[in-house]
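Dataset card, provenance and construction

Sequences and ligand SMILES were collected as paired inputs. For each pair, a complete structure of the chain with the small molecule in place was predicted and serialized as structure tokens. The example below shows a pair involving zinc ion. Curators did not alter the output after generation; any descriptive sentences attached to a record were derived from the structure itself.
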Amino acid sequence: MTKKLHPLVCGNIGNHCVECLKDTSFGTGLFVNRIPADRDVEDEDGNWLGQRDGWLCALCNRFECDRCGGLIDCDEDITAYDVYAQHTDFHDGAYRVHEECLTPEEKELLEVNF
Ligand SMILES: [Zn+2]
Ligand SMILES: [Zn+2]
């Protein structure tokens, strides 16, 4: 039995994901790759209700690709930092992208610097 959490729950939510509120305890399939996290909780009008502490599950722990807008699985994101080995953005202002969204030149640089 999984306890259903209220969408605006505050405080320590134990093993639940602060984003999707799924149970991430051992055996749920979300235990691996979860990271400790907290979130501000606001109602629909943007009023701050409090903060919740829990985990961020692997499904919520994903970034958006700055080029195609799709989600990147955790650990598979490539940042401009990975390519240029310095704090910078790509020429088009993107910062975090899929490896397949890199230009051929960027891929070459990545091989050299990564
Ligand atoms: Zn989640
Ligand atoms: Zn992409």
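Derived descriptions for this record:
The radius of gyration is 18 Å.
Strands lie at 11-17, 35-42, 48-56, 63-64, 71-72, 77-79, 96-98.
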